[in-house]
Amino acid sequence: MSSTTDKIKGAANEALGKAKQGLGDVTGNDKMKAEGAAQELKGKAQGTVGDAKGAVKSATDKL
């Protein structure tokens, strides 16, 4: 995947994770809150991978 794709998927997972957590809070569903937290962390990790790929590509382009 490209760095942009990783960043987009990461942002989507973060947003969905936050939404799940909010819905879990409203409904009192601890399982949904936990799933949301896990998905949000996954999204943050994907965004970080995208940033790293972008930095590596930028560095290699300069060479």
UniProtKB/TrEMBL annotation:
- Identify the species of origin: Methylobacterium longum
Give start and end of each CsbD-like domain.
6-58
Family, per entry = Belongs to the UPF0337 (CsbD) family.
Residue ranges of region Disordered? 1-63
According to UniProt, the name of this protein is: CsbD family protein
Residues spanning the signal sequence: none
InterPro entries linked: CsbD (IPR008462), YjbJ_sf (IPR036629)
Family matches, as SUPFAM superfamilies? Hypothetical protein YjbJ (SSF69047)
Pfam families attached to this UniProt entry: CsbD
